Amino acid sequence: MVHVEQLSTRRPAVSVEELLAGFVPSPRFGEVAFATYRPDPSQPSQAEAVTMLQNFAADAAHKPATGLRKLFGGKAKVPAGRAGIYLDGGFGVGKTHLLSSLWHQMEGPKAIGTFVEYTNLVGALSFRKTVEALSAYKLVCIDEFELDDPGDTVLMSRLMRELADAGVKLAATSNTLPGSLGDGRFAAVDFQREIQVLADQFEILHIDGEDFRHRGLPTPPEPVANSDLDARMRQDFAGRTVAVDDFGTLVDHLAGVHPSRYRQMLSGIDAVVWRNVHTITEQSVALRFVVLADRLYDKDVPILASGAPLDQLFTPEMMAGGYQKKYFRAVSRLTALAREAQELSVPAPVG
Known about the structure:
Blueprint: E1 3-5, H1 16-21, H2 44-61, H3 68-72, E2 84-88, H4 95-105, E3 110-114, H5 115-125, H6 127-134, E4 139-145, H7 150-165, E5 169-174, H8 188-195, E6 202-206, H9 226-236, E7 241-246, H10 247-254, H11 262-265, E8 271-277, H12 283-299, E9 303-307, H13 316-320, H14 324-344
């Protein structure tokens, strides 16, 4: 028996408290720690990153944030020591694991989320209310800091600057464009230019290591025929709650739900089934769908789909354009989730 829902009928109303409560590590990193990170012995920078973050956490523990008093009491100086730490490196070297480990080790009010989740939070609450909410935190972690959107980058730079002035400790990671994956390096000069006042308050560490995504996009499983979707769903997702949607209807529905609410929109969903997947041709629509892909990946939700293969979800122009890293990440993550659904349908070996 499968309990069927539709994402395209869900419009969650989310309070400020509920939005902020979502800024915790995803289930994939819900129990990680520095002790569970396995540095590559051939890459000394990985072990160095662990030591640096542990020291950063110990230092921050003795410098509690002063919150709103500092924020509204005039231009406050950042406390002695670094306000922030910045981990730079290619995909697959463990930056999110390390950032989540830092979050777990720190006591007190704290937040962790992706760059996009913070910009969505500002969009949902307003910039000033976001500053007010986060200024009471001891630590704010920003994963996958992006430089491909000048407007969002300036917004986040300003947010980080105001939080640092309020005494909040900051930790961030960078996410390199696929076109630069050969060296996997983030341009520290660009970072310093964009962050401006905060630049000299950040300790920037490059983490070396093999980039697991530079080999190109994985090939997704073959789409399921529409006539087989129901049988596969009943077989693979028995006893689960499954969101079944026409792909076009779902894509249209996303325009009416703020991306900050996509996490709540997926509440209670164990798997998704999409009928008639097609290539998305509008940039704004595609960027919204990237956010949904990230939330599905965070919750480890298997995908069963008919129509176009998932590596054709975005146009060739999008995959080669300024937002290419978002689309590469989305296709990679959706493909991984589709493979999970495929593996569910493979009979267990006998013996």
